Amino acid sequence: MTKWVSSFGDGKAEGTASMKATLGGKGANLAEMSNLGLPVPPGFTITTDVCTYFYAHDNSYPPELTAMVEEALGKMEAQTSMGFGSAEKPLLVSVRSGAPISMPGMMDTVLNLGLNDETVEGLARASGDPRFAYDSYRRFIQMYGDVVMEVKHYSFEEALEDLKREKGARFDTELDAEALKELVKTYKAIVRQEASRDFPQDPKEQLWGAIGAVFGSWMSARAITYRRINSISAEMGTAVTVQAMVFGNMGDDCATGVAFTRNPSTGEKLYYGEYLINAQGEDVVAGIRTPQALSKAMAEAGESDPAESMEVKLPGTYKELTDVFDKLEAHYREMQDIEFTVQQGKLYVLQTRTGKRTAAAALKIAVDLAAEKVITQDEAVGRVEPASLDQLLHPTLDPKAERKIIAKGLPASPGAVSGKVVFNAEDAEAKAAAGEAVILVRIETSPDDIHGMHAAKGIVTQRGGMTSHAAVVARGMGKACVCGAGELSISYRDKTFTSQGVTVKEGEEITIDGGAGLVMAGRVPTVDPQLSGDFATLMEWADKLRRLKVRTNADTPTDARTAIKFGAEGIGLCRTEHMFFQDERILAMREMILAQDVEGRRKALAKILPMQKGDFVQLFEIMGPRPVTIRLLDPPLHEFLPHEPHEMDEVAKAAGVEPKTVRRRVAELKEANPMLGLRGCRLGILYPEISEMQARAIFEAVVETAAKVGTAPIPEVMVPLVAMAKEFELIKARIDAVAREVMAESGKQIEYQVGTMIELPRAALRADEIALEASFFSFGSNDLTQMTLGLSRDDAGKFLEPYQKAGIFEHDPFQSIDQSGVGELIQIGAERGRKVRPDIKLGICGEHGGDPASIAFCEKVGLDYVSCSPYRVPIARLAAAQAMLRQKSAN
Amino acid sequence: MTKWVSSFGDGKAEGTASMKATLGGKGANLAEMSNLGLPVPPGFTITTDVCTYFYAHDNSYPPELTAMVEEALGKMEAQTSMGFGSAEKPLLVSVRSGAPISMPGMMDTVLNLGLNDETVEGLARASGDPRFAYDSYRRFIQMYGDVVMEVKHYSFEEALEDLKREKGARFDTELDAEALKELVKTYKAIVRQEASRDFPQDPKEQLWGAIGAVFGSWMSARAITYRRINSISAEMGTAVTVQAMVFGNMGDDCATGVAFTRNPSTGEKLYYGEYLINAQGEDVVAGIRTPQALSKAMAEAGESDPAESMEVKLPGTYKELTDVFDKLEAHYREMQDIEFTVQQGKLYVLQTRTGKRTAAAALKIAVDLAAEKVITQDEAVGRVEPASLDQLLHPTLDPKAERKIIAKGLPASPGAVSGKVVFNAEDAEAKAAAGEAVILVRIETSPDDIHGMHAAKGIVTQRGGMTSHAAVVARGMGKACVCGAGELSISYRDKTFTSQGVTVKEGEEITIDGGAGLVMAGRVPTVDPQLSGDFATLMEWADKLRRLKVRTNADTPTDARTAIKFGAEGIGLCRTEHMFFQDERILAMREMILAQDVEGRRKALAKILPMQKGDFVQLFEIMGPRPVTIRLLDPPLHEFLPHEPHEMDEVAKAAGVEPKTVRRRVAELKEANPMLGLRGCRLGILYPEISEMQARAIFEAVVETAAKVGTAPIPEVMVPLVAMAKEFELIKARIDAVAREVMAESGKQIEYQVGTMIELPRAALRADEIALEASFFSFGSNDLTQMTLGLSRDDAGKFLEPYQKAGIFEHDPFQSIDQSGVGELIQIGAERGRKVRPDIKLGICGEHGGDPASIAFCEKVGLDYVSCSPYRVPIARLAAAQAMLRQKSAN
């Protein structure tokens, strides 16, 4: 019989940490901690298989589940010597979700389950604290009502506020047992009113209601969005963990907190966390009361009061806790994120998991753990998410720049960004979609804000600590975030905030520094990132591991210099057309396009030749001995002509032709589907003089550079959009002829290669024929994706999102390669090319060259290099190393 | 050692008819005829391998060729008892080209080679006819000067005319020996003047000059054009045949002629041909003198004088000749095209080859030969070029229509067409490119006119017979042609012709009936073709042979009825969008597109539903038990909206919305590359209500048709532009849901299939995933070609021609499938689809479905059916049968 339930507690467990797939992360770690002998309240986990069963069987459970849950409950009762539903010693439980991959804040949790009008009295007697009992009961009704019975949570909040006003209480803690008893009655009335039924008194009914709500929430809109953003499959399902409650809110010898074994923001080795005396866990995470630091050191760094730290307030428990930290980090060989509760002086560990961290912290922790010999260098390389490096490679505030600080908060997630202020997730999404950089300013954030946080460049909250929702999510997303900026007075209605006497309206620009916790007015200049020692160390380890070379897509000296700084090993794609768009050049280009015959075109091209040659000399000098792949002109000619009537008249004037000539030519060149039109090598077939000019510029630049610096660069001339081998042959013949001419003229030998883009499905299929003449292939994965999927990148915007929502695309295929479609063509192209020319050089130069999943694919297919934008070079280096690690561990 | 030369003559030969690849068609048949013991003048053939060698070695010959030619010449001298260059008994030769595939009129020929100032006297003595000798010499200088020495032929013609004027002669034959001797001097002076060197006197020098000219002409612009139009590879090269001259111009017991063993225009079993007494072969083909009929019967039918027929004039030789005809037709088992010469009463056969014929003739000859048991029924099916059937399927003149005949000529190539008159090839090409139907009117045509003839719908000439250049080429191309319409007075300068008092200007419309030899003023109505008994017979034989089913692409009742008449076995593609463009419907369609929400769209779609259902009922009734594949809406929505401002205003008014709403929607829907945009199944994913309406229309039509006619049609619902299996799954789920609804509402079971187009490379690659749910695939080869080659059909026009000229495309890939690119994807799609679903139905529905080469490919890949336009259905039936024949003979 399938085992649907797995128990833990009392120093042993039926599961282990390796069973995340069935127990979820939370359940597996609770089992593991039980096995480690850590103080874990007993409980059991309903497996993810039940979730799968639930959705496959019309929201029903396996028939044998009830009995299994009963049995597990029985064990809990035995271990705690309490009874579920007992009026004397009532066992209360928490019910939590736990997916195999952590989805913080996305799933619903119910605490204090098991309380009813009878057991609350039992709890009052057992704890000797009626106030605590009724506070727990009212919290339970509120949470259960919200999560399970769909009663709007503000109904409860309003009733609480009304009562506080009536009683003259500032804080919840000032309400006494009687007042809370009254509140419970009010809450039950609210439930009856809004849910049209009574609040359930039967603890078993409560339990099954909560279990159903957890499974139900797996398909909530929030969960689906989170999974989509994070590319998590819905297949895996969630587990449900039921655990005996312990209470951090039974008095001042009680506390609750969350902690990291190292600083998740910087990676510093430092016990890091927050706690609240006399509180339940939700109070810390929800950010409603601002918690205190765990350690004195952290309090001092974070500007909170060291005297209030746990290290000072509960020194014995603190020591016990840090021992648990050390034990867990050593056991998991990884920085941990831990939840704990202290009930009447006794420590309970409620959860441990790999702690989320910023890229900088990930880097430092990985390098430190390797230095501490806890992990190997290879493991360290595998520990840093390549895409997260992006956070480290972008500018920080210029230290010399003037800045007007208007608020200070917690440095919740690093990065310096400027953007226009928005006050809700919808506006953030809308403006970001319109191409604007926005900063989302909220009192606090909730899971409902996820899509807005995703769209924003940065996040500011008025309330909440370093482990508040906003902080955790922002770090996960790599967004700059300032939390708990209490000075802010935010009006959602007016769409303004005021701080230090300055009022900022929606749409006005601010700058935030998430590494320093600063909010500044206006735009503050930034400077290039300082790539730290840890960065260099990890990159060095990665470079030792990887086989794939990493080149860059660069058209300008600036790009080329940046890329070299980031470790690029060559240029994989230099788009020559970008050079034609510059002011002086576009005139000659237009003259060429407007010319009536080949002589006219040659005349215009002769003007472009020296400029283009100059560009190449510059690039060759910067790149030194590194290979430079230069693609011949690719876009359709109409891209160089204006389309507005008055612009056409200007061009006519400048070119000295009739306006109607320009109009006629624009009309002639107009295309129904330019992507599939007269572009790429087709231009070179129809107008060979263009290819000839470009080849001459390249070869003359080689000779000139060689004369200047002593050694000759070896250019790789790349022919775009080849469909037929013959196209390539014809253009290669022209290039070779020009090379011979330049060699004859200069008296110098020129080494060079001629290769092609493989960016049409046909080229991939007939790579064998093309490879007969081509020295290298560069897979143009952007166009290959467009053609293979019949999807224009310019037009797909309208349906990419609905397509991702409908589960048709798991990823945006322009971001991460469609491995089973486009990928197969790349594989076919690589195999057939190599069959004919075993030493053919193979690379990729689309957007995908900087995407870790796509790089892993390139490693699998055995390409020689990837080429990506300069800022993605380090990401590609790390991803290439990780791909190699995965290959190794697969073998 | 390679044998570069192959001799023949005297009842034996080194080659046979099977050696066309090396000897060319002419050389192989001369060898074969020699072996058959027919009276063939001796000679030798220089093989096509020499041509290949020539172009591979910088226009030079294999070193051993000279000796081999000498040896072969020696044999000729021995057999004829004459000497090449001998002043006593001079051997004269012809030098002709002969490619493996006949290329009439495209290659150059030199006759009378070996004459010089000495041998001419020898010829005069040997023949006893100095006039004949000098006439031969002057013809030789003229031909050699033109073809080998590049002297303009009109220089010679002017000199001849001058001389005739001077001597008061009307015809060439009125010039005597002395006059011709004088002309020879003038000709030699012209050569010296224009070629800057003397006319060569050395016969060997003459010979090598002529051989070089033949090889050189293989790469002439005319030859290249002919090969391009006829899809002939340049690789095969041409052979050169050198043969002893015989003379049809040595007196009135001499003659020359060309003949067909059956009527090449109708296929009737009748000795058919033309001859001229006292003439050389060129005189017949060039159409300068109008020749006489071979037989009395033919003369009577063709309105020439029976008394002048060869049957009457040279009865003995005629009998000998018809024996040769019978022998050759029996030997080759095919209608032959024969050239012959009678020299002083002795018959010589100079050439035989398979005769070109009209489609009607091909059909009749094939069926007749099978009836005569000369060939089998299968062979008969293989004898008719499928594409040529097109000629038979198009309208002929309405017999009841009024017509104003303005000229009569020879019925050179059948077909009734109307078009605007043009007077040269360039104008024909330009106007045809602009979409106009044109009729090319010429005094006579030459190989330089080929491209214009290709562009024209029909051809009229003033001069020339049934075997003139115009007639032969027009029949080959399947163009209507009227030849030798002597009444026409044509002015190229004024671009007019006058006939029977009517003057027709360029651009005015005429109608010609090439089957009756009529030229008519204006446009004359036509009627549908009568599909003859032979047609039906051959189709029946073809249908017995073929495995591939043939369906049609039909959107309208008219299309469907035509297709059934032509033998379509179902509809392979019904494009539903064509139904949306009709007047009343486009309003509802636009209302749908302009709607703000799904409710608005549903409202508009509800208006379209009954109309669309009505269409389907009509189609189902016409198609009866035949399958009908209905494709869901495919084009992007902007195709339904107007693009001119005033049209948008009208639409706004009609739809009752603000003009700006229409403009905004038009702008929203605008796409950079509509081919790769929001179309096909993407519409159904974003607007499921469209698919639902269409599915409902289909299923309700099934129920309605079943109620009307008693049996229910089984529709095949086709989802277009699928890239991802999930897209298909989602839309299929909607279709299935609608089917269940309609079944519930009507209380009837509905049988149906849901399948998909495979028209994106990704769909072909992932056909396995798609086949899990799809009952059939239809390869959309148009879009698959566009995507695979990255080539927009709308935009490719600009470079398709240069691409074909440059040898990049052998065929237009939109006409005939790119087998090694697009074809491989079809093969992959078919294999992977079948692997998952062995009984999946596979078809093709692009333009290629009616192209014989593509159909052969579909047979090879094992598709179940092809679908093509109604008029191509018979072509597809025949092509499918021939593909099967080829498969059989390959096994």
Oligomer: homodimer
The tally of strands of chain A reads 32
Output the number of helix runs of chain A.
36
Inertia-based shape of chain A: elongated
What is the CATH T-level topology of the largest domain in chain A?
A: TIM Barrel
Describe the biggest sheet of chain A? 8 strands, mixed
- Low-pLDDT parts of chain A are none
Query: At the fourth CATH level, what is the homologous superfamily of the largest domain in chain A?
Result: Phosphoenolpyruvate-binding domains
Could you tell me the strand content of chain A as a percent range? 15-25%
Count of spatially separate domains of chain A? 4
CATH class of the largest domain in chain A: Alpha Beta
- Binned, the helix content of chain A reads 40-55%
Question: Which architecture name of the largest domain in chain A does CATH use?
Answer: Alpha-Beta Barrel
Write down the overall mean pLDDT of chain A: 91
Strand order in space, largest sheet of chain A: 13-23-22-15-16-17-18-14
N→C terminal distance of chain A: 35 Å
Q: Largest chain-chain contact?
A: A-B, 49 and 49 residues
Taking Cα atoms only, what radius of gyration of chain A do you get, to the nearest Å? 32 Å
Summarize the structure.
The structure is a homodimer of 891-residue chains. Chain A is built from 36 helices and 32 strands.
Describe this structure in words.
The structure is a homodimer of 891-residue chains. An 8-stranded mixed sheet of chain A has the order 13-23-22-15-16-17-18-14. The first copy, chain A, folds into 4 domains: 5-244, ATP-grasp fold, A domain (Dna Ligase, domain 1), CATH 3.30.1490; 255-357, D-amino Acid Aminotransferase, Chain A, domain 1; 394-527, Phosphohistidine domain (Glucose Oxidase, domain 1), CATH 3.50.30; 546-580 and 611-632 and 685-890, TIM Barrel, CATH 3.20.20. The model of chain A has no long low-confidence stretch (mean pLDDT 91). Chain A has 36 helices and 32 strands. With 891 residues, chain A is α/β, with parallel strands linked by helices. The interface between A and B is large, with 49 and 49 residues.
